[in-house]
């Protein structure tokens, strides 16, 4: 597994959708923003399919992504990286973290976590802290589990995830952590990260031998991505990515966070809420030029 250092002479951008539904206008905005910024920088544009969720990813959605992007007229470099075909890459990175004692197995179910959080709230009379996505921070029950007991449970086939020990991770990084945000006008600003607000995040799931956070960091390094362009909803998650980059000795790309498209209720467009897809718009007679004009790329 050879990581490619970003080449400042030829910036590398990527658009990385998940094939768990058809693309909607929010995806079009992200793809077109990547296209515009890559063209302005004289850079390369890659397409990645983030299909680690094998239960929800479907071949017809992959085909739909390619069809929709082609209809929009976005041209990517040949070769599409499919995450589901590279689990060994993520496993190698995970083993490096495990060898340093930065990862531990967690056998708690979501129901058990909710119950423990409720008990602690009742005991202290104070609300339990939440991560930036609104989920309760993991209380840490399995962090104190004896290694022998953890190994026994794993050998017995007990379902478990692998969590990053955030306190140990931050101690291992040493210096202050941050990244640089770039804007369309060429300006840049430095951002200091606060990974502790995420707690002990999951790096490998019960049903998948990796997580979004680990896979995206490894992929960006393997593909030499120098500029990451994605929605503002993923801005907070960049804290986790910067920590993993430092721990794994990987470069930190420049980041740009574009605006989000909202529905009538002020919520972000999402496949899970059946936001109108590009395929449906196309069937209604909408043209690519209409989409580009609507999103400000005319």
TrEMBL record:
**Which Gene3D superfamilies has this protein been placed in?**
HUPs (3.40.50.620)
Q: What GO terms describe the biological role, i.e. biological process, of this protein?
A: glutamyl-tRNA aminoacylation
InterPro entries attached to this UniProt entry: aa-tRNA-synth_I_CS (IPR001412), Glu/Gln-tRNA-synth (IPR000924), Glu/Gln-tRNA-synth_Ib_cat-dom (IPR020058), GluQ/Sye (IPR049940), Rossmann-like_a/b/a_fold (IPR014729)
The record ties this protein, via PROSITE patterns, to: AA_TRNA_LIGASE_I (PS00178)
Q: Which residues form the Glutamyl/glutaminyl-tRNA synthetase class Ib catalytic domain?
A: 13-291
Q: Which UniProt keywords apply?
A: Aminoacyl-tRNA synthetase, ATP-binding, Ligase, Metal-binding, Nucleotide-binding, Protein biosynthesis, Zinc
User: What GO molecular function annotation could you give as one example from this UniProt entry?
Assistant: ATP binding
UniProt-listed Pfam families: tRNA-synt_1c
**Family per similarity comment:** Belongs to the class-I aminoacyl-tRNA synthetase family.
Protein known as: Glutamyl-Q tRNA(Asp) ligase
| Native source species | Bosea thiooxidans
Task: Please name the taxonomic classification of the source.
Answer: Bacteria, Pseudomonadati, Pseudomonadota, Alphaproteobacteria, Hyphomicrobiales
């Amino acid at each position: 597994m050879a990581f490619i250092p970003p080449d400042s002479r030829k910036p590398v951008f990527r658009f990385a959708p998940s094939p768990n539904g058809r693309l909607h206008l929010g995806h079009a905005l992200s793809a077109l923003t990547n296209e515009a910024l890559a063209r302005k920088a004289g850079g390369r544009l890659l397409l990645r399919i983030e299909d680690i969720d094998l239960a929800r990813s479907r071949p017809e959605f992959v085909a739909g992504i390619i069809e929709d992007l082609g209809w929009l007229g976005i041209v990517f470099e040949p070769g599409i990286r499919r995450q589901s075909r590279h689990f060994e890459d993520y496993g190698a990175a995970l083993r490096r973290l495990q060898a340093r004692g930065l990862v531990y197995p967690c056998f708690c179910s979501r129901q058990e976590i909710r119950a423990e959080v409720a008990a602690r709230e009742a005991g202290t009379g104070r609300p339990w802290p939440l991560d930036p996505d609104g989920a309760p921070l993991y209380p840490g029950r399995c962090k104190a589990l004896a290694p022998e007991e953890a190994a026994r449970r794993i050998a017995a086939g007990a379902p478990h995830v692998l969590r990053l020990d955030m306190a140990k991770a931050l101690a291992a990084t040493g210096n202050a952590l941050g990244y640089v945000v770039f804007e369309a006008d060429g300006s840049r600003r430095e951002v200091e990260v606060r990974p502790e607000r995420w707690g002990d995040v999951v790096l490998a799931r019960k049903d998948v031998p990796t997580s979004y956070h680990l896979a995206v960091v490894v992929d960006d390094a393997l593909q030499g991505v120098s500029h990451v362009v994605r929605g503002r909803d993923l801005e907070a998650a960049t804290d986790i990515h910067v920590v993993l980059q430092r721990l794994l000795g990987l470069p930190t790309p420049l980041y740009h966070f574009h605006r989000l498209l909202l529905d009538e209720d002020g919520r972000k467009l999402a496949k899970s809420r059946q936001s109108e897809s590009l395929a449906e718009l196309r069937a209604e007679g909408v043209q690519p030029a209409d989409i580009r004009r609507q999103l400000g790329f005319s």
